[in-house]
Write a structure and sequence with these properties.
The complex is a heterodimer of chains A (about 500) and B (about 230).
Chain A (H helix, E strand, L loop, with lengths): L1 H13 L4 H36 L5 H23 L8 H4 L5 H13 L2 H19 L4 H29 L7 H15 L5 H14 L5 H21 L28 H13 L1 H21 L2 H4 L3 H19 L10 H6 L4 H22 L8 H26 L21 H24 L2 H17 L1 H14 L1 H8 L4
Chain B lengths: L1 E10 L2 E11 L4 E5 L6 H8 L7 E6 L2 E2 L10 E4 L11 H11 L4 H9 L2 H4 L15 H11 L7 E5 L7 H18 L2 E5 L3 H7 L2 E6 L2 E7 L4 H11 L3
Parallel strand pairs in B: 3-8, 3-9, 6-7, 7-8
Antiparallel strand pairs in B: 1-2, 1-4, 4-5, 9-10
Helix pairs in contact in B: 2-3
Classes of the chains: A mainly alpha (about 500), B alpha/beta (about 230).
Chain lengths: ~500, ~230
């Protein structure tokens, strides 16, 4: 049966319409994976000698044990954002003679062989081997390694429980942030010393292996809880059916000021506000706004002027990049309607453009307090904003005409790779790096003012040529109309 | 009103539609029947310029649909759920379509009010997004949206499927009324021979992409269609 499930998933992967593109993304993710493996491997090998060198008087193993609390917290956060419960389309299986428990066991079992669970092994095994070579008792070290593997699995299943609860809430990442920072704070202010607790616990297991029973019991309990939660969701009336909330309608009269693009702007605003996926790009605004603080408070980066432009483009343009890169895929589920309706493509695109330009202006205004870090920072942000409106917004709209991947709006948002083709990854690079590179070049060759001026002039040129550029972009969209309709018509 | 000439659609060499000539006069209620894969939806998609013809063309009111967009103001359609915007309520959706078709809210309200019976109290004032309505109710909303803005050509793909019997009967009245009283050209496709013969003045049978029968509806039509579809052994 497991073999059959696996073959079903393999087919859904290779037979998907966007197979080529998702393969590209998979390769990219593969590279990230390789990078992490190497990092963990380095950590596993280098940990023992490094710790011995820094604190020769302490036992490296006990030091690692003390550190494990942070490892678990970090792992939990990391998994929350990147690891999703492997889902399969369960609905068609429900009416077939397959036991529900079998489906649940399969899904949970599959999660156990996820990359996230193998990654720690790359650190644990070399570290363990080093310990054995340093004449630590063989059995105890093996038990210790086994314990860590179990702990990894505990985190694995704990994450799914947290996810299944937080998926219900509006700000889905709030619970995990509160939980982890809460634990961290309790530990940090010595109210409950988890580092100590965890350290002593692992030491105890190392010294008397019988205590391994405790993590095993926790693991079994978590698995059982997961099993119960998932099984409950396997009924059509609960998990598979979406909850219906009563909605409030607003008429957004103010958009009327924008004339003939008003209906599209209303639609876009509703699109953004009423779907989880798009809503997250609104929360990303907060990240964009405070991004500068990370850079400008860092004494190493504070003085490197080209970074001003990088921050400027990023923070004023974060919505532009986030929302813009999925134009027109946001509308993919009703693209056929738009194409057969009495609409002017140009108005449709102009509404998107206006929205992006507005976001840039708003982000710039909200970022004015950055003047605290000097007038140069603010000037750099100002020219970045102009550049974003004049150049980047047009580029991203143009790039959208290459979009061929449907976005399912209902899916849970952050770090959802759906709708992310290879083209979108590429488009982010020129948007940020081209202005920054150009600026750096001018800055080092000439001076700050001229560099700013050139960036601003580029932006203004774009704004002046707006009508012309929109004509070109519209034409491009019209040319790829049939291809887009066809691609957006395919699920998965 | 709608002229089709030498129209052909091929998918990787496989011809799925081939219509040498088909004329649909203004104000006719036109029915398209055929088994699965006969090319009904393909024809409608070509008519709406959602797919590209491999050869030939369709002219609507003298406008070749894949060359100019001027047919859009007088054409409306409901093909499937992808014509609905899931995150809008029914009212918002009607107003949105209305605005695209230069109708203000009052116009839309007046039009929609005529379909109170048809909605059966399950569409308007529900405070629900369209994506949360049942399939049948989604269809009702989509069909009525296709009537907004005084279109001259209305295209409905499988309008009767998923509807309850009461609504099917009401929909038949609506469609008949559109063609007879308002002179609107209505194109529908259906698997239900009884419904099509009830509603349409003319019925065309498609088989493997070709027209095999072109009938003006009469008493005998239903019988003839039944014989045809029994005979082909499907």
């Amino acid at each position: 049966m497991v073999k059959r499930f696996l073959s079903l998933e393999w087919k859904s992967f290779i037979r998907s319409a966007s197979f080529g593109k998702s393969l590209g993304v998979k390769i990219l993710i593969g590279f990230f994976g390789l990078y992490f493996i190497l990092m963990f491997l380095g950590m596993g090998i280098g940990m023992y000698p490094a710790l011995k060198k820094i604190h020769p008087e302490q036992d490296p193993l006990f030091m690692v044990n003390n550190f494990l609390f942070y490892w678990i917290l970090g792992d939990l956060i990391f998994r929350f954002f990147f690891q999703k419960l492997p889902m399969m389309s369960v609905k068609p299986l429900l009416t077939l003679p397959i036991k529900r428990s079998k489906i649940v066991n399969y899904v949970l079992g599959k999660s156990a062989i996820s990359f996230f669970n193998f990654l720690p092994l790359f650190a644990i095994i070399p570290f363990g081997v080093t310990l054995i070579m340093q004449d630590y008792p063989l059995n105890a070290v093996l038990i210790w390694m086994l314990t860590l593997t179990i702990v990894t699995l505990i985190v694995n299943f704990l994450n799914f429980i947290i996810e299944s609860f937080s998926i219900e809430t509006e700000l889905s990442f709030l619970p995990i942030i509160i939980l982890t920072t809460g634990l961290f704070a309790l530990n940090y202010f010595n109210i409950i010393s988890f580092t100590d607790l965890f350290g002593k616990g692992f030491n105890a297991i190392y010294e008397s292996p019988i205590f391994i029973i405790i993590p095993i019991i926790i693991l079994i309990a978590l698995y059982a809880l997961n099993f119960k939660l998932l099984r409950k969701r396997l009924f059509l009336d609960s998990g598979l059916k979406t909850k219906i909330k009563e909605v409030n309608t607003s008429n957004l009269e103010w958009t009327k000021n924008f004339g003939d693009i008003a209906p599209f702007m209303q639609l876009d605003l509703k699109l953004i506000w009423r779907n989880k996926r798009t809503k997250s790009s609104v929360w990303m605004l907060v990240l964009g706004l405070f991004y500068g603080l990370f850079i400008y408070t860092n004494p190493n980066l504070k003085e490197s002027v080209p970074f001003f432009i990088f921050v400027g483009i990023f923070s004023t343009g974060i919505f532009l990049m986030n929302f813009g890169q999925f134009i027109p895929a946001w509308d993919s589920s009703y693209y056929k309607l738009l194409m057969s309706q009495n609409i002017k493509y140009e108005q449709y695109l102009k509404s998107k453009f206006t929205l992006m330009a507005l976001s840039v202006v708003i982000m710039f205004v909200l970022g004015v307090p950055y003047i605290y870090f000097g007038w140069k920072v603010l000037l750099a942000h100002f020219v970045s904003a102009i550049y974003n409106i004049g150049v980047n917004s047009h580029i991203i709209l143009y790039g959208g005409s290459f979009n061929r991947k449907k976005i399912n709006l209902d899916q849970k948002a952050a770090f959802n790779y759906q709708g992310t083709g290879a083209v979108q990854w590429l488009i982010g690079i020129p948007l940020l790096l081209v202005p920054m590179g150009l600026f750096a070049l001018l800055y080092y060759l000439l001076n700050f003012e001229i560099a700013c001026l050139i960036i601003a002039v580029l932006g203004i040129t774009g704004i002046v040529l707006h009508q012309k550029l929109m004509k070109i972009i519209t034409k491009k969209y019209l040319e790829s109309k049939y291809k887009m309709i066809d691609a957006f018509d395919q699920n998965n | 009103m709608i002229t089709t000439s030498n129209l052909s659609k091929k998918y990787s060499g496989n011809e799925v539609l081939n219509i040498a000539s088909l004329d649909i006069p203004k104000g006719q209620s036109f029915g398209l029947v055929g088994n699965n894969g006969a090319g009904k939806t393909t024809y409608f998609s070509l008519l709406l310029d959602l797919i590209k013809p491999s050869a030939g063309f369709i002219k609507s009111n003298g406008i070749q649909v894949n060359e100019s967009e001027d047919w859009k103001p007088f054409t409306s359609a409901f093909i499937d759920e992808s014509f609905l915007i899931g995150y809008l309520t029914a009212e918002e959706y009607f107003y949105f379509i209305g605005e695209l078709r230069n109708q203000n809210k009052a116009d839309v309200d007046t039009l929609v009010a005529q379909f109170k019976d048809f909605f059966h109290g399950e569409i308007l004032g529900q405070k629900k997004y369209l994506r949360d309505l049942s399939k049948g109710n989604q269809k009702k909303a989509g069909i009525v949206a296709a009537l907004i803005g005084n279109p001259e050509v209305i295209i409905l793909d499988e309008p009767f499927a998923n509807l309850d019997p009461t609504t099917q009967i009401r929909l038949k009245t609506i469609i008949k009324d559109l063609a007879e009283k308002q002179g609107i050209t209505v194109l529908i496709s259906s698997h239900d021979l009884m419904h099509v013969t009830d509603v349409c003045e003319r019925i065309v049978v498609l088989e493997k992409g070709e027209i095999v029968k072109d009938l003006i509806t009469s008493e005998a039509t239903l019988k003839e269609l039944e014989v045809h579809f029994t005979g082909t052994g499907v």
